[in-house]
Amino acid sequence: AQSVAQPEDQVNVAEGNPLTVKCTYSVSGNPYLFWYVQYPNRGLQFLLKYITGDNLVKGSYGFEAEFNKSQTSFHLKKPSALVSDSALYFCAVGSSGDKLTFGTGTRLAVRP
Amino acid sequence: DGGITQSPKYLFRKEGQNVTLSCEQNLNHDAMYWYRQDPGQGLRLIYYSQIVNDFQKGDIAEGYSVSREKKESFPLTVTSAQKNPTAFYLCASSLRTGGLEAFFGQGTRLTVV
């Protein structure tokens, strides 16, 4: 069975500082990895994905994520946080022919 | 305007009633999903469908039912057997299962009164 762990319920960062939201996964076979963002009372919005190729994936709104196979991680990063980045972030994993499994989410709070 | 539409946005249910949440997509996606979101628990899969007239139980299917009579539509019925139905429900679709990003609707907040 596949699974995703987001070890931090909340991440706090000052505006302008770099941010990292952590994600580790477990899956049989090659992983498909995703990051989504959710604003209050809204659906999830796709940010970026890793399927194959370059381990550093760039996505929407200046976010990027690094796939690390040996550590089974897919951490979300941004060089300079904005207050508007404050939201709930979900990591998800899938594999060929299977549905996505989501983590429990990490709340990002960016203070001015 | 392509996308996935959930209705209603807010829904109130009395104890013992069945209610149906609507989910429609015009993305020509084969796969559709229903998730339940509770605070601190992330998204939990209720049911999913990979193709018309076929669907499978997810992790928390008890007390819920679905149908997939048309490619565009995947309604979810919350039955009276679901003892704790108050939650935020999210519908999603993807071109197919496996390795493809899912597109989400805006959600339906169901409250039992």
Task: Briefly summarize what is shown.
The complex is a heterodimer of chains A (112) and B (113). By secondary structure, chain A is mostly beta strands. Chain A contains no helices and twelve strands.
What does this structure look like?
The complex is a heterodimer of chains A (112) and B (113). Chain A is an all-beta fold and 112 residues long. Chain A contains no helices and 12 strands. Chain A has strands spanning 3-5, 10-14, 19-21, 24-26, 32-38, 44-50, 56-58, 64-68, 73-78, 87-94, 101-102, 106-111. In chain A, strands 2, 5, 6, 10, 11 and 12 form a 6-stranded mixed β-sheet that branches. A 4-stranded antiparallel β-sheet of chain A has the order 3-9-8-7, with no helix packed on it. Chain A is globular, with a radius of gyration of 13 Å. In chain B, strand 9 and strand 10 (103-104) form a beta hairpin. The relative contact order of chain B is 0.33. At the A-B interface, strand 5, strand 6 and strand 11 of A face strand 4, strand 5, strand 9 and strand 10 of B.
List the helices and strands and how they pair.
The complex is a heterodimer of chains A (112) and B (113).
Chain A: E1 3-5, E2 10-14, E3 19-21, E4 24-26, E5 32-38, E6 44-50, E7 56-58, E8 64-68, E9 73-78, E10 87-94, E11 101-102, E12 106-111
Parallel strand pairs in A: 2-12
Antiparallel strand pairs in A: 1-4, 3-9, 5-6, 5-10, 7-8, 8-9, 10-11, 10-12
Chain B: E1 4-7, E2 10-13, E3 19-25, E4 31-38, E5 42-51, E6 54-57, E7 64-66, E8 76-78, E9 87-94, E10 103-104, E11 108-112
Parallel strand pairs in B: 2-11
Antiparallel strand pairs in B: 1-3, 3-8, 4-5, 4-9, 5-6, 7-8, 9-10, 9-11
Primary descriptors:
heterodimer; A: 112 residues; mainly beta; 6-stranded mixed β-sheet; 4-stranded antiparallel β-sheet; globular; B: 113 residues; 7-stranded mixed β-sheet; 11 strands
Uncertain spans of chain B, ≥5 residues at pLDDT below 50?
A: none
* Sheet of most strands of chain A: 6 strands, mixed
What is the percentage of strand-forming residues of chain A?
Answer: over 45%
Oligomer: heterodimer
- One letter per element, helices H and strands E, the order of chain A comes to EEEEEEEEEEEE
Number of helices of chain B: 0
Number of DSSP strand runs of chain A? 12
Radius of gyration of chain A: 13 Å
The whole-number mean of residue pLDDT values of chain B reads 92
Q: Structural class, from secondary structure content of chain B?
A: mainly beta
Number of strands of chain B: 11
Return Rg of chain B in Å: 13 Å
